[in-house]
Every structure is written in C-alpha cells, then in structure tokens.
C-alpha cells in the first residue's frame, strides 16, 4: 500500500479533495476599517498583541475613566496603544477618531468572545493542551537526596487532610 499513503484518511478512498480546500465559511479572518480601507487580519495574531499590552491598557483605561490627575495622560496612552495594535492612524491623517479606536477594540474583543463561544476548536484544543501540559508536568524528575537514593515524600503525593474532614473507616 505504499503507493496510496492517504488511504487511512478516507476508509480506503484515495480522493482527499474534501481536505484540499478550506471553505471560506470556515475561515476566521477579522476585518476592520482603518479609516481608508478594510484590513483583513489573523484574529489570533491580533489577540496575542492585545494580550501583550492588555494589563497596561486596562490600567490606562481605568485611570482614564477616573477623577485622577493623570486621567488625561492615561487616556492618550490608551488611544496610542489601541492605534498601535491595529496599525491605525489618527483621524487627521486619514485614520479613525479616538472614539472609533475604542469602538474597534471593543468590537474585536466581542468578536473574540463570539468565536470562542461558537467554536468547538477552542474548547477541544484548550482541553488537549491542558491534558498534555498536565502529563508533561507529571513526568518531572524526583530530586535525589545526598545519599544518592530518590526522595519519596508522601506529603507531596497526597494533599493534607483538612481538620474538618472525617477519617475514613479503613484508617
């Protein structure tokens, strides 16, 4: 069967054309208007960018919406971060207004929530990665004591019982 390497994919069928094309309806491409044109972007790349500045952006937005003295400065920083994330220019240069910039970020985050909610990919994928991660962390090496034997501390393997927990009848 060396001449039919793909037969396992289709229960003996060698026609794999159904796998050859990724349907337009299946593609998750985020699109937004940058002030002059519609930009198409990989939503995962954008999401990674948002996560890289997410904490700073969140702080800037909270301070901007507060009565603090630095609210104006934080507002300006937040707008700058959003424009940087989506590579959009200020309105005066043909880009988006500040309000539209915030709207774009909110729209993108809503889009991400909808994709996450409506897609089984993210649920299954995250479970697979969590399981793989847990398995790899179980394979850590046990420390070697000074005598050369491996240490086995049962307190590491089992969590301590809480004082309110009744003892089992077998104990």
Give the total of beta strands: 2
Secondary-structure element order, N to C: HEEHHHHH
Beta-strand portion reads: under 5%
Task: Indicate the percent of residues in helices.
Answer: 40-55%
**Taking strands numbered 1, 2, ... along the chain, how are they ordered across the largest sheet?**
1-2
The structural class is mainly alpha
Number of helical segments? 6
- Average of the residue pLDDT scores: 73
Radius of gyration: 26 Å
Distance N to C terminus: 60 Å
- Taking pLDDT < 50 over at least 5 consecutive residues as the criterion, the unreliable ranges are 6-10, 123-160
Apparent shape: globular
Largest sheet composition:
2 strands, antiparallel
SSE layout and pairings?
Elements: H1 17-20, E1 30-33, E2 38-41, H2 43-64, H3 71-86, H4 98-118, H5 120-138, H6 154-157
Antiparallel strand pairs: 1-2
Helix pairs in contact: 2-3
């Amino acid at each position: 069967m060396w001449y039919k390497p793909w037969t396992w994919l289709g229960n003996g069928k060698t026609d794999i054309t159904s796998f050859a094309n990724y349907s337009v309806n299946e593609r998750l491409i985020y699109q937004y208007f940058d002030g002059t044109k519609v930009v198409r972007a990989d939503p995962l790349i954008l999401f990674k960018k948002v996560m890289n500045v997410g904490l700073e952006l969140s702080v800037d937005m909270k301070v901007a919406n507060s009565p603090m003295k630095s609210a104006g400065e934080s507002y300006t920083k937040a707008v700058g971060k959003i424009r940087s994330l989506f590579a959009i220019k200020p309105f005066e240069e043909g880009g988006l207004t500040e309000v539209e910039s915030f709207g774009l970020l909110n729209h993108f985050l809503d889009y991400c929530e909808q994709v996450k909610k409506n897609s089984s990919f993210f649920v299954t994928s995250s479970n697979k990665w969590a399981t793989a991660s847990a398995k790899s962390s179980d394979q850590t090496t046990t420390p070697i004591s000074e005598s050369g034997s491996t240490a086995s501390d049962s307190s590491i393997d089992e969590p301590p019982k809480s004082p309110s927990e009744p003892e089992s009848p077998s104990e």
